[in-house]
Amino acid sequence: xxxxxMRGLSVFIQDLRYAQSKExxxxxxxxxxxxxxxxxxxTSNLSDYDKKKYVWKLLYIALMGYNIxxxxxxxxxxxxxxxxxxxxxGYIACTILFTxxxxxxxxxxxxxxxxMMSHSDxxxxxxxxxxxxxGGKEFAETLITDVAKVLFSPQxxxxxxxxxxxxxxxxxxxxxxxxxxDGDFPARMQSLLxxxxxxxxxAVASLFLGVASITTTGYDDVVSKAVTxxxxxxxxxxxxxxFYKYYQTIxxxxxxxxxxxLQYYPPPTEDKSTAARLSNVIxxxxxxxxxxxxxxxxxxxxAILFEAVNLVVALARKGHPLxxxxxxxxxxxxxxxxxxxxxxxxxxxxxxxAHLTDMVPVIRTHQVRPRSIECYFSFNIPVLFLS
Length: 387
What we know:
By secondary structure, this protein is an all-alpha fold. It has helices at about 5-15, 20-40, 50-65, 70-80, 85-95, 105-115, 120-135, 135-150, 160-175, 185-190, 200-210, 220-235, 250-260, 270-290, 295-315, 325-335, 340-355, 360-365, 375-380; strands at about 245, 250.
């Protein structure tokens, strides 16, 4: 919104704030709606500035709970404008005003399809964001092919590919039956994990989590590719400027997503190289994580650690035990920490380990003594009882 548009809207907002009663506010809104309706129905063409100004006002009025249906068609028409700022306001308005069941969405499909194939990153982003936010079944069925073209196109820039991956995730979550089953789709999807852009990889990891919740058939290379990425991140030098770092922890969100993704797949027992690298990654995570004085760093590091513990449990349940005793000893140290949050996380992870029959004797060594039970109840932390 430009400063001029902001000034025009601020006068109207100020009038509403100074209203002495609900009736006075409603009268001011009614007067403004009558003025806007007259402008929209007049024979003279509105300037781009006026269109944006009046649609911003309608959005504000709609968010206050008033009916502005007469402005919906104007918003739909704005997304087809050649003026980027007009198109942007139109997309924002449609995203806020419409739901996936709105009949007017059908009028937007062709314009969205054209915008997806635009050479402008910003316009492609607007179209993808609109589909992701409004994506009903009709949108998904009609536009999933176009979203896939943007996602897999070698000409697509990283900033757009991220949006396309998340848009595809939204479509598959809404309509999992639309998952393409042809042999080419899984191969092209798995090739996305070879992208060198960390932002793209993070978005693609989210997409694969959505895909894995539907099916893992045909995605056999995901495990080796995910382990390769984890190996690079876990053993990278923290001084390497090519990686994103959060309080000196390299790409924590991507690491968490990949560890979570590996829990959907069977252990890589047949691929000795991948199995060895996965074992090294888990060992590195278990040994490097320490409690520091920086809360933000601790949160990132422990998010990775406890997701690694979940992976250890998942692999053990599938007949591929890795570092179970090391994990138990590590959790024992967390249980001994006085901070209630660390104790809770340690006990919760131990509960998962306790479901593994072979681990019960090991976990017994960390069993809570009766005299210390009260401190756990005082923090509403569940106590681990083993019969």
